Structures are given as C-alpha cells and as structure tokens.
C-alpha cells in the first residue's frame, strides 16, 4: 500500500475516530419515487422531528448564530479551559469556511462537527459521492486540498486532540477514514505541478478517483500551464538534498536534463493522462468554460457524452447536500435525503419538492446537538425535477454578498461598498447568473474579458460596461440586443423604463492588496483562499451622504 499524505499523523487520528462509524446503503436513495417518500426518508435518515414543520416557514438561521468564536481558534497555543466544552470524547473537529467574501482570517466562520452531524450527514453523503464514483477499499485515490491557514491541522492539548481544517480537507479525510482506499495521495493544490507530487501519483496503481478543483485538473490538461509549473518545480527544487527525494523524482530530473522542458512537459502530460484515463473526476463544474471542458476531455481521453465525473455540492454549514450519484444521469445532481431543504425566492419559502419556482436561495434544516432550522446557505439552486429525489443543476450560484476585502475603483468614493455573487435582488431588479450574461456580452458586444460589468446603485441605477477598447460600440444598439444575452425580464424592463441606465466606462475593480501579495499571503496561511476569486459582475453601492 502506497500512502502519500502530507499529514499522516492527523489521518491516523481520523482512522481512530471513525473506527465505529457505519455508512448507509445510499443506492436505495435512487429508488425513492415520490415527494412523500423523499420527505419520509429525510426524517428517518436525519433524525429530525416533524416538529420542525411548525418553524420552517417563519424561521431563518444565519450561520453566524452557531459559528464558534474565531479569536479562540486562531490561537496557535490553546489552553484546555478554552475548548473543553467542545469535547464529548478525546477528539474534537472544528471546520472553517474558505473566506470568499475576503477580509482576513478573523472573518472566517468556524463550526463544530458534532457526532450527530458527522454520522447522519457527513459520512453517508461523502460515501455516496465517492462510492458512486468507483472508489472502494481495493482502489486508489488522488486528492488535492487547499493550502492550510497557519493553525490548521492537529493540536494536542493535554490528552485532547483538536483538529482544525478547511471544510474541503475535512470532507476528503472523512472519505479516506470511512472507505479506506488501498492507496492514496493527498496534497495541496499548489503542489499539483510539482514533479515530486506527480511522481507519487504515477507510482499509484488502479487510480479510480481524482478529487480536485477544475482549476487543478486544468494545470495538467493545459500544456502551457503544465510546462510552466514543471519548469518552476525543477528550477526551485534543492537537488543538493536529493537523498530525501522520492526515487522516481530523481529519475525525472535526469529525463528533464536529457530532453528539455518542452518535450519533458509533453511526456509528463502523456504519462499522467495514461495513469488517470480510467478515473472519475470529482469536482464542481460550476466555473468551467467550454474551452476548459475541451482541454479536460482531451487530457482524460473522453469523447463528448462519455465523460466520467461526479459533480458535487458540499457546504461548510450543511455538509454534503447533493451529487451526481446516478451515472446514467450525471449532469444533474441528486439531492440527498439527509437534511430538510427549503427554497426561498422573493420572501416565499417552500419545501424543495413543492415549490413552483425554478430557482431560489437554499435554506437547510439539519441534525446537530440541537437541530438547526433553515440555515441560510446563501447559495442559489436551479431545480430541474421534483419527482422522487429532487434533481438540481450542477451549477450552484452564490447569492450576493458584501466583500470584506477593501476594494477600489477610480472615480468612486472610498466609502463605496462592493458586492459580488451570482444572484441579486436590487429593489425589484433581479439579476440571475450574471456570469453567463457577461460572457454573452463579451462575445456579442466586445466588452473586455479582463474587466467586470458593474451595476451601480445610488440615487439612480446604472450598468457600466467595460468598452474602453471598443469605442465604436453603440450603447443604444447594445441595449436593444441585450435580451439575447438572457439578462432577465427585470433588467429588460428597468432599461426600457429608464430605471436602469447603460453606459461605458472604466470597471477595473481592484483590491487594496496586489494579486501577487494576496497569493503569497494565502500560501503562507495568513489569508483565506477565497480572497483570490475574481467575479465578472459586481454591484456597487454608494452610501448616501
């Protein structure tokens, strides 16, 4: 058995913690054929009482209400008195969010993983995602997780084990602990093109799953990205200390010196492609462009329509919610009968199987020491089918949120508030999935790809398009043709009624910290990884004087 784990001591604690936890026969979920059967399964699996039905149409829970004090968990040295209330046995697990809204690590939300939450939601949900993808105890897995913040990992306090992790790493270690694959590699995203990491992947046999973000797979599938990563790895490695290197890494160094970087990158890509060709990719498809899909298909040796992947939706506050567990229908995600989901749109809340809306914000009731009712996920789902297990789109959208990271834009006051996301309701103007809208406008009207579209709210509303490099673009013509880009009925009507003005201008929104500095701070664990996300659409609010 080959095990390549950057924190094996932590994984050993996980193995011990999980030794008596049993999974579920998740395949039976696919036999659910009615909304009543689905609701019944939720109450059976989650342990929730039907008493929650008295509250779900009136109550909403902000995740901040049950998040732990970040000031305690950001301390590198902890006293048992600070955390003793978290322990029902000798190990306790707390997970934190990725910090997409920006700011610093003090803004992260931290959640205790109770036994009830772990046994009833995390284990069966992750089991379904990975077993449906082909992982079992005689196969191998390749897993990539984010770079940790400084305090992450295992901390021993007297006789207690405190585990602090990004939710994404925690979820992967749940899989390793429960399924126990024959061999595996788990490493950080940043090492995906490191030659030592690649050598270890190529040393694994019978790889059945690769769990990694699409951006990590693209680093292998795009020959230019792979070449750049390999060249950096070869040049930065301390080859004078080669006795600590994996044997195959040294052999790769000889090959690199013999054939040069161009041929070396082609050879490594070919070997990776061969090693991974029978694997299933486990990743979110939300952010993938057609071009990226094409590169991944070529790399994995897939024909169109014969892709092997599992889409998934896992939240820090709610656990594994859905996944492409039916391989005959993998482009749709099946909602797991482990929590009670409500869809909210324009103030109206309905059980997911009974709503008439095709999309809305997800609220979740789930088990815990005390059940949590209607957790506001801030995520927007698109419902494709309500019969039996509900089926949702693989594209999960983020409801608009205020950026905590300080942002700036020339010509706007320092007090301007910046909001990002995929769904907004701005005084009756609904903006749904602006990413597609902006992509279409780029193709049809020539707006700049590197700069976002802005919607500015103040005394009036205006949409600013980045057309600085296309002075010939006619705003009136754009306004006429914008409906072809699925901007939505609210925007169409607002433009028609002159409630929303459209103009061109500078839209190069930047943070007060350079991208390189942000990247370095994330790698060092001083900032959460979410601050690196760029959005194609921002809402700007100019506060009244």
Outline:
31% of the residues lie in helices and 25% in strands.
Describe what this molecule looks like in 3D.
This protein is of the alpha/beta class. Helix content is 31%, strand content 25%. A hairpin with a 2-residue loop joins strand 14 and strand 15 (348-351). The N and C termini lie far apart (66 Å).
Please tell me the overall pLDDT: 90
Q: What is the tally of helical segments? A: 15
What is the rounded Rg?
24 Å
> Helices and strands: which structural class?
alpha/beta
Distance between the termini: 66 Å
Share of residues in helices = 25-40%
Strand content: 15-25%
Summary keywords:
545 residues, alpha/beta, nine-stranded antiparallel beta sheet, six-stranded parallel beta sheet, 15 helices, globular
Helices and strands, with pairings:
Blueprint: E1 3-5, H1 8-18, H2 35-46, H3 70-73, H4 80-83, E2 91-96, E3 110-112, H5 115-131, E4 140-145, E5 153-157, E6 160-166, H6 167-179, E7 183-188, H7 195-203, E8 207-211, H8 214-221, H9 223-236, H10 247-276, E9 280-282, H11 290-300, E10 309-310, E11 312-315, E12 319-323, E13 332-335, E14 340-345, E15 348-351, E16 359-366, E17 372-385, E18 391-393, E19 397-398, E20 401-402, E21 407-408, E22 417-420, E23 423-426, E24 429-432, H12 434-445, E25 453-457, E26 461-465, H13 475-481, H14 489-496, E27 500-504, E28 510-511, H15 515-523, E29 537-541
Parallel strand pairs: 1-7, 2-6, 4-7, 4-8, 8-9, 9-10, 25-29, 26-27
Antiparallel strand pairs: 2-3, 5-6, 11-12, 12-13, 13-18, 14-15, 14-16, 16-17, 17-18, 17-19, 20-22, 21-28, 22-29, 23-24, 25-26
Helix pairs in contact: 1-6, 5-6, 7-10, 8-9, 8-11, 9-10
């Amino acid at each position: 058995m080959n095990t390549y784990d950057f924190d094996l001591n932590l994984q050993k604690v996980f193995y011990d913690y999980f030794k008596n936890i049993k999974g579920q026969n998740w395949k039976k979920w696919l036999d659910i054929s009615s909304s009543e059967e689905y609701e019944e399964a939720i109450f059976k699996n989650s342990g929730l009482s039907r008493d929650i039905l008295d509250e779900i149409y009136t109550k909403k829970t902000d995740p901040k209400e049950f998040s732990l004090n970040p000031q305690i968990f950001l301390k590198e040295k902890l006293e048992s008195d600070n955390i003793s209330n978290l322990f029902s046995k000798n190990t306790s697990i707390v997970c934190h969010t990725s910090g997409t809204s920006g700011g610093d690590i003090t803004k992260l939300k931290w959640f205790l993983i109770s036994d009830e939450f772990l046994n009833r939601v995390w284990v069966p949900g992750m089991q379904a995602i990975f077993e449906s993808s082909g992982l079992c105890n005689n196969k191998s897995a390749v897993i990539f997780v984010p770079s940790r913040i400084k305090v992450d990992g295992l901390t021993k306090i007297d006789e207690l084990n405190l585990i602090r992790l990004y939710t994404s790493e925690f979820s992967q270690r749940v899989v390793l602990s429960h399924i126990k694959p024959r061999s595996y590699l788990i490493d950080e995203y940043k090492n995906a093109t490191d030659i030592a990491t690649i050598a270890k992947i190529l040393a694994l046999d019978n790889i059945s799953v690769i769990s990694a973000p699409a951006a990590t797979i693209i680093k292998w599938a795009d020959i230019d990205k792979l070449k750049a990563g390999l060249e950096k790895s070869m040049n930065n490695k301390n080859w004078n200390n080669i006795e600590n290197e994996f044997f195959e890494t040294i052999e790769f160094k000889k090959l690199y010196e013999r054939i040069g970087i161009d041929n070396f990158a082609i050879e490594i890509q070919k070997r990776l492609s061969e090693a991974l060709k029978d694997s299933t990719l486990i990743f979110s498809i939300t952010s993938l462009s057609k071009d990226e899909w094409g590169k991944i298909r070529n790399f994995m040796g897939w024909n169109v329509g014969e892709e092997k992947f599992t889409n998934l939706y896992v939240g820090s506050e709610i656990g594994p919610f859905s996944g492409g567990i039916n391989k005959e229908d993998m482009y749709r995600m099946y909602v797991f009968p482990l929590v009670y989901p409500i869809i909210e749109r324009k103030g109206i809340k309905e059980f997911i199987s009974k709503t008439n809306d095709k999309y809305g914000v997800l609220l979740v009731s789930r088990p815990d020491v005390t059940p949590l009712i209607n957790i506001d996920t801030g995520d927007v789902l698109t419902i494709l089918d309500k019969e039996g297990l509900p089926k949702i789109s693989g594209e999960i959208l983020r409801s608009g949120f205020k950026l905590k990271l300080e942002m700036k834009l020339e010509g706007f006051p320092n007090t301007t508030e910046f909001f990002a996301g995929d769904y907004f309701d701005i005084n009756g103007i609904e903006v749904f999935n602006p990413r597609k809208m902006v992509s279409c406008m780029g193709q049809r009207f020539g707006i700049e790809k590197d700069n976002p579209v802005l919607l500015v709210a103040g005394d009036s509303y205006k949409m600013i398009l980045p057309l600085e490099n296309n002075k010939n673009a006619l705003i009136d013509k754009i306004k006429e043709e914008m409906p072809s880009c699925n901007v939505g009925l609210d925007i169409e009507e607002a433009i028609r009624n002159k409630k929303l003005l459209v103009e061109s201008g500078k839209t190069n929104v930047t943070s007060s910290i350079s991208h390189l500095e942000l990247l370095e701070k994330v790698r060092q664990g001083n900032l959460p990884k979410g601050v690196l996300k760029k959005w194609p659409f921002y809402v700007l609010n100019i506060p009244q004087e």
